[in-house]
């Protein structure tokens, strides 16, 4: 078994127009910038992007938006300082936005990866984000039904990886990466260091079974 | 009327963070609170992006761009810290494991309703982040905010006019003018910023403020 891919371009070349793509990261931490740049060069369009933030500045997700490759964004917080390309596209009505509370976003992704049909959460009960959704009261507390969220591809970032796809992480760069790894039909991992030796199983956070392709990208943002 | 600065307000709120607490500080001004908690209290700070044990800002030259908090500020790691992924981080928040959350707000109503994620301006994208998860899961919700908007209009209302973050979730409001508890009867005065009178503060508050018991 060998999931290693030689280049970032090769790793993303099968992502078609119209694909749904999860992209790991929170702010600039744990974002697979190498894979995002490769996706921009690859040029796939009409993408649905699932990611916590909508980029900041002219790089990463900001550049993907600037190039007009995204038709829908699913996220919790698209309004970080410098999220100018998203705000422009949104104000112009050029992009659809599905706003999801952050914990619900994480749990919907986790549910998809865990083979669950959804879950009941108190988050958002009685608010605008629960409108039109099934609700239930359990022991006097209101809950909202939330469906699982999967994707065609996930682009994630780890610290170290091996040819089996096992991953470890660094600091707060872990965030959405492990759950996204489990929730996409084809998960592509970028790692700062691709190890010849197998990772110590005790240090593995994402088991390689979730990962289809792995590529080294040594740059830390 | 006398008005606390943001830093003075953070220092006042910090007095109410007890030793041994697990605390989540919302993005922006609530993050000022940690630097004013008395040093003989050990408090562990949770940040939604996957850490308990947020430490102070790193010294110059020791920054790690992958070590950030929910405000995307660079951080260090405090003794006793742990990292975890996002679903675990929100299990910690929704599951009732955190003691206190400090949040900013656009509006707070006398029944404890909180509005802090969207305005009525449809051109401006809404951004909810983790606020809705915090308010349903954390038993003590402290709000830290200006008492009135820049145009002088009140933020402490009978009912919120902006979209709600959570229903009846706020326990206490710390403003530049006063500290108020949310009780079953409505807002109740805890203390006034030095030099202010209840009548002065009531005059810039839409909801009724009950005197301290």
Automatic annotation (TrEMBL), chain A:
Coiled coil: none annotated. NCBIfam families: pcaI_scoA_fam. It comes from the Bacteria. SMART domains: CoA_trans. PANTHER family: ACETATE COA-TRANSFERASE SUBUNIT ALPHA, KETOACID-COENZYME A TRANSFERASE. InterPro entries: 3-oxoacid_CoA-transf_A (IPR012792), CoA_trans_fam_I (IPR004165), CoA_transf_BS (IPR004163), NagB/RpiA_transferase-like (IPR037171). One of its GO terms (molecular function) is CoA-transferase activity. It comes from Paracoccus aurantiacus. Belongs to the 3-oxoacid CoA-transferase subunit A family. This is 3-oxoacid CoA-transferase subunit A. Keywords: Transferase. PROSITE patterns: COA_TRANSF_1. Pfam families: CoA_trans.
Automatic annotation (TrEMBL), chain B:
It comes from the Bacteria. This is 3-oxoacid CoA-transferase subunit B. NCBIfam families: pcaJ_scoB_fam. The keyword Transferase applies. InterPro entries: 3-oxoacid_CoA-transf_B, CoA_trans_fam_I, NagB/RpiA_transferase-like. Keywords: Transferase. GO terms for molecular function: CoA-transferase activity. SMART domains: CoA_trans (SM00882). Belongs to the 3-oxoacid CoA-transferase subunit B family.
